[in-house]
Design goal:
It contains 7 helices and 6 strands. It has helices at 7-15, 17-25, 35-53, 65-72, 138-150, 180-183, 187-199; strands spanning 77-89, 92-96, 105-115, 120-127, 156-163, 168-175. The protein has a 6-stranded mixed β-sheet, sandwiched between helices.
Length: 225
């Protein structure tokens, strides 16, 4: 059985298989968009239009203009909201389209800058959280693995989480050493996801959203029942 995942979907499954089942499999429940989620979406859109199209930032997002100008000044081809997919063939990662029916993983780079002359790329992921204290770089590693697969001429990737509100930048550098290694740490949780699909068992798992935020009201752990 082919199981497709993204970093956000596998994180949701790891948080609670039952929640994943209702939101991503049978889709009988929707997670309401919060004010923070809407703000993050708007910032991503504004940054995309500013860098790709030169469209002025709305007034309330002017504060991120110096950060975006620094990114625009970096040499290289700039790809905004760049979609990538990968699949495994005989144990090797093969690049594929974002919507390829046989894809293993797919993800979107908020900003990918390719400098082919230097065999170097940059991956920027915008974050609107108020603090970078608990920054999670695992998504960057997946995007780096996919970038190495899609652009074999790239040998070095300088990546970072750009916290536009906190004005912080969490950096990670990657070197080409086989893109398979970037996905290997996720194999166990993906195997668990595959097993749930195959046996039809999606057990609930207590987590921080149970008390007041989980939209799956039928779960015994839900604190809003």
């Amino acid at each position: 059985m082919n199981v497709t995942w993204s970093y956000s979907s596998i994180s949701l499954f790891d948080q609670c298989p039952k929640k994943y089942y209702h939101l991503r499999v049978i889709k009988d429940t929707k997670e309401p968009a919060s004010e923070a989620m809407n703000y993050g979406t708007d910032v991503h859109t504004a940054a995309e239009h500013y860098i790709r199209d030169g469209k002025p930032l709305p007034g309330k997002y002017k504060y991120i203009e110096p950060m975006l100008e620094s990114l625009k000044a970096i040499d290289g081809e700039k790809l905004c909201e760049y979609e990538m997919g990968v699949k495994f063939v005989d144990g090797k990662i093969i690049p594929c389209g974002f919507h390829d029916p046989d894809r293993y993983w797919r993800g979107i780079a908020d900003l990918l800058i390719l400098n082919r002359e230097k065999a170097e790329a940059r991956i920027i992921d915008y974050k609107t959280g108020k603090s970078a204290q608990y920054a999670d770089t695992k998504q960057l590693r997946l995007l780096a693995g996919a970038t190495f697969a899609h652009f074999p001429e790239i040998k070095i990737i300088r990546a970072g989480l750009l916290f536009v509100v906190a004005k912080d930048f969490v950096k990670e550098d990657y070197t080409l050493a086989g893109p398979e290694g970037y996905f290997e740490p996720f194999h166990p949780i993906v195997d668990q996801l595959k097993a749930c699909h195959e046996n039809g068992v999606w057990n609930p798992k207590r987590n921080f959203t149970c008390k007041g935020w989980c939209p799956v009201l039928e779960c015994s752990h839900n604190g809003r029942r």
